[in-house]
């Protein structure tokens, strides 16, 4: 069991994703092949060791000084912040606020003028765009109307040949008087042979049979 | 319930020890670190108090390892008595905020030494080949 997480969860009740290292559990013994292995100790020469000691000592001293400096700074800042509620500092702050507001207003007016100009230009561009689009649309509509009227004209011309109830009888009479037989044949030269019963003459075949 | 943000929850115990450390945020084969202040006894996978910067240890196309530091907040947390881990100390030393970390010096001189040795070896091998010829 890993009690660490339980403990940590209690002290810090937050959902945390915990990615554990994937290694073998603590209760497993040392591998047989590794029982008598003694890790090699790093060899550091005396010279290097002394040098390291020296620079580490220097570093630690300097760090201590830095740390103390920032700590004192923090204390100073805190005390100065406490004095920030005095009348003098409040007046100063108000003045600065006033100044900031003025600057801000100036900038705002400047930006507003720029924005107005830009808006005008944009509006003009939009109008132009819309007008152009409308023109294109009008031209399209005109073309469509022209095509449609052309079609209507053609149909009206054809209208005279239509069979109406008045001309129906005449049309029937005409059709009966002139029967059309589509049952004709065509040879390679385009000659029509109407009728159904035409004697077929096989010229070449007849010759062949004669021979 | 959403996870706590990597940039920090801002909640902490006043008297508990804090530490400024690197917290690995990258994925497999792509290390990336946040420099965060957190409780000293907390795991790196747990919520931090505040993020103070970032460190990308992989050189970019311009051969730079980028570090970002929020020095104002680092100063604040140092004033609160936060501890600084060695890797962060090294980074801050190279940034000129702290004195150079002894470990930086050590790695530098060790690297120089190995380079010298390698060079000597290479020279020796070239000499031997020339004599053989």
UniProtKB/TrEMBL annotation, chain A:
<dbReference type="GO" id="GO:0005763">
    <property type="term" value="C:mitochondrial small ribosomal subunit"/>
</dbReference>
<dbReference type="Pfam" id="PF14943">
    <property type="entry name" value="MRP-S26"/>
</dbReference>
<protein>
    <recommendedName>
        <fullName>Small ribosomal subunit protein mS26</fullName>
    </recommendedName>
</protein>
<comment type="similarity">
    <text>Belongs to the mitochondrion-specific ribosomal protein mS26 family.</text>
</comment>
<dbReference type="InterPro" id="IPR026140">
    <property type="entry name" value="Ribosomal_mS26"/>
</dbReference>
<keyword id="KW-0689">Ribosomal protein</keyword>
<keyword id="KW-0496">Mitochondrion</keyword>
<keyword id="KW-0809">Transit peptide</keyword>
<keyword id="KW-0687">Ribonucleoprotein</keyword>
From TrEMBL, chain B:
<dbReference type="GO" id="GO:0003735">
    <property type="term" value="F:structural constituent of ribosome"/>
</dbReference>
<dbReference type="InterPro" id="IPR023803">
    <property type="entry name" value="Ribosomal_bS16_dom_sf"/>
</dbReference>
<keyword id="KW-0496">Mitochondrion</keyword>
<feature type="compositionally biased region" description="Basic and acidic residues">
    <location>
        <begin position="112"/>
        <end position="126"/>
    </location>
</feature>
<dbReference type="InterPro" id="IPR000307">
    <property type="entry name" value="Ribosomal_bS16"/>
</dbReference>
<dbReference type="GO" id="GO:0005743">
    <property type="term" value="C:mitochondrial inner membrane"/>
</dbReference>
<protein>
    <recommendedName>
        <fullName>Small ribosomal subunit protein bS16m</fullName>
    </recommendedName>
</protein>
<dbReference type="GO" id="GO:0005763">
    <property type="term" value="C:mitochondrial small ribosomal subunit"/>
</dbReference>
<dbReference type="Pfam" id="PF00886">
    <property type="entry name" value="Ribosomal_S16"/>
</dbReference>
<comment type="similarity">
    <text>Belongs to the bacterial ribosomal protein bS16 family.</text>
</comment>
<keyword id="KW-0689">Ribosomal protein</keyword>
<feature type="region of interest" description="Disordered">
    <location>
        <begin position="112"/>
        <end position="133"/>
    </location>
</feature>
<dbReference type="GO" id="GO:0032543">
    <property type="term" value="P:mitochondrial translation"/>
</dbReference>
<keyword id="KW-0687">Ribonucleoprotein</keyword>
């Amino acid at each position: 069991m890993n009690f660490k997480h339980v403990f940590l969860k209690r002290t810090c009740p937050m959902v945390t994703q915990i990615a554990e290292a994937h290694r073998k559990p603590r209760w497993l013994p040392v591998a047989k092949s590794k029982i008598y292995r003694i890790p090699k100790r790093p060899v550091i020469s005396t010279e290097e060791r002394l040098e390291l000691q020296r620079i580490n000592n220097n570093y630690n001293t300097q760090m201590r000084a830095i740390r103390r400096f920032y700590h004192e700074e923090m204390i100073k800042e805190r005390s100065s912040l406490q004095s920030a509620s005095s009348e003098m500092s409040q007046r100063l702050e108000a003045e600065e606020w006033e100044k900031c507001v003025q600057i801000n207003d100036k900038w705002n007016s400047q930006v507003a003028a720029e924005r107005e100009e830009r808006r005008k230009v944009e509006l003009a561009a939009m109008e132009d765009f819309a007008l152009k689009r409308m023109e294109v649309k009008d031209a399209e509509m005109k073309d469509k109307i022209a095509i449609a009227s052309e079609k209507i004209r053609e149909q009206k011309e054809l209208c005279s040949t239509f069979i109406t109830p008045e001309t129906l009888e005449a049309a029937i009479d005409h059709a009966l008087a002139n029967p059309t037989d589509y049952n004709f044949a065509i040879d390679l030269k385009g000659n029509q042979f109407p009728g159904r019963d035409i004697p077929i003459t096989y010229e070449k075949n007849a010759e062949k049979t004669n021979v | 319930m959403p996870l706590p943000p990597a940039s920090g929850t801002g909640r902490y115990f006043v008297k508990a020890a804090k530490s400024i450390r690197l917290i690995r945020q990258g994925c497999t084969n792509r290390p990336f670190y946040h420099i965060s202040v957190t409780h000293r006894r907390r795991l790196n996978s747990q919520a931090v108090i505040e993020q103070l910067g970032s460190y990308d240890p992989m050189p970019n196309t311009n051969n730079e390892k980028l570090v970002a530091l929020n020095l104002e907040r680092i100063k604040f947390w140092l004033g609160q008595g936060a501890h600084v881990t060695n890797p962060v100390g090294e980074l801050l030393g190279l940034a000129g905020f702290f004195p150079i970390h002894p470990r930086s010096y050590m790695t530098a001189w060790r690297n120089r030494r190995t380079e010298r040795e390698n060079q000597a070896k290479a020279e020796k091998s070239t000499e031997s080949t020339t004599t053989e010829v």
